[in-house]
Amino acid sequence: MKKIIAISVIALAVFAACNPEDKTPKGANGKAVITVAQEDLVAYLPMESAQPESGDITLAGEGAGDATCFAEGRTGKAYFGKAGSFLAYDLAENSPIKSLTALTLSFWVKYAELDYDHAPVPMFFDITNPSDACWGNVAVALDRTATGAGYLVPKFQYQMAEGNCWKTTNWSGEEGSDTADMKEGYNGAFAAGRWNHVIYTADGEAFHCYVNGVDVTPASQVACPGAIVFKNATQIWVGGWPARYYDGYKWGDAWLGDLDEGAIDEIRLYKRALTADEAKALYKAEVNNIN
Q1: Are the C-beta atoms of residues 70 and 77 closer than 8 Å to each other?
Q2: Which pLDDT score is estimated for 146?
Q3: Is the CB of residue 91 less than 8 Å from the CB of residue 119?
Q4: CA–CA distance from 283 to each of 212, 262, 268 (Å)?
Q5: Comparing C-alpha atoms, which of 248, 257, 168 is closest to residue 216?
Q6: Residue 202 pairs with which residues in a beta bridge?
Q7: Is 63:240 a contact under the CB 8 Å cutoff?
Q8: Distance between CA atoms of 89 and 61, rounded to whole angstroms?
Q9: How far apart, in whole angstroms, are the C-alpha atoms of residue 182 and residue 171?
Q10: Which of 24, 60, 68, 193 is the one with CA 20 to 30 A from 261?
């Protein structure tokens, strides 16, 4: 009788192994689909390849990039930039991205330290029209830091009816203050040379930045001076900065460049600002999916 029970237990174990009960939906990266605010997700780029997994966007160009830009990353593969490479996506005619008045942008990013002499400044993400001058509707780039600081300074920008609103999250002083002010406050939240998960939320009234699940937004940066107003948004750019023209003059190339010393993974764009609880839930779900 004991032998029969033992055999039955083994048989059940084998059956369970061959027929797992885990029916969690899997995405292109082979990991569990993240369902946080899924109904408000308007674009998802898992970076397994240049193709998006969801969102009404289509690949328009890669510059010097190719399949070798996609290698093991934070979750499945990631996009590793190189000089002259980028990912450009056309927005569909009726894409909700063209008229966002609030948004959440999340991604994993890894980049080496940038000192004051580093050029060009790398670009992560841009919602834009390449024929327009200025910075586009939404832009994420890196600023430079003191040599040996060990951290990075991400900068986020959105377009208002009049001008642009810039938000810098790893800065303890006001814009224009000297480097001594960077020794305290939120410095170190975005460490150089390692994977960091970043979430930006903005709705024209409040701005927040979460790094690795923690809200690192300086109090002076929370308030927004004006509502988000997109102007002629036609494309999303990842890992590069489109050449701009103004009165026939090409500008920006000298100090704005590509993600050629870093990598980006798991880009998600939502059509509203996630709450603090949702941002934490999104980060935890991302952590559960890391390689």
Answers
A1: yes
A2: 73
A3: no
A4: 7, 21, 12
A5: 168
A6: 103, 207
A7: yes
A8: 7
A9: 6
A10: 60
